[in-house]
Design a protein that fits this description.
Keywords: 4Fe-4S, Iron, Iron-sulfur, Metal-binding. The chain has 80 residues and is α+β, with helices and mostly antiparallel strands. The chain is built from 2 helices and 4 strands, in the order E-H-E-E-H-E. One iron/sulfur cluster (SF4) binds at residues 15, 34-37, 39-40, 56-62, 73.
């Protein structure tokens, strides 16, 4: 069963990273380090962070602590 509210598109993961802003290629791993669920990872081939598993507590430190503002967490409508 797909457990997702209608406002939340199932094919999109909740956390997106702006590849133009992400400085993972310079060694940044802040979002990966702060995520309590360990669902973020660095894609070494692209040099950017990305969401590895589609799971999220919407606790927000990845978005707040990213030094370049590259992370956007889409909070599902029903949780707002
Ligand atoms: S904290 Fe921001 S800049 Fe650093 S790896 Fe994550 S998305 Fe990229
Ligand atoms: S909002 Fe929290 S659980 Fe979701 S990716 Fe960011 S740090 Fe991880």
């Amino acid at each position: 069963m797909q457990y997702a509210p209608i406002a939340f598109t199932p094919h999109a993961v909740p956390v997106s990273v702006d590849a133009d802003k992400c400085i993972a290629h310079k060694g940044c791993t802040v979002c990966v380090d702060v995520c309590p669920l360990d669902v973020l990872a660095i894609d070494l081939s692209k040099g950017t962070a990305y969401m590895k598993f589609d799971e999220c507590w919407y606790c927000m430190p990845c978005e707040k602590d990213c030094p370049t503002g590259a992370v956007t967490v889409e909070i599902p409508y029903l949780l707002r």
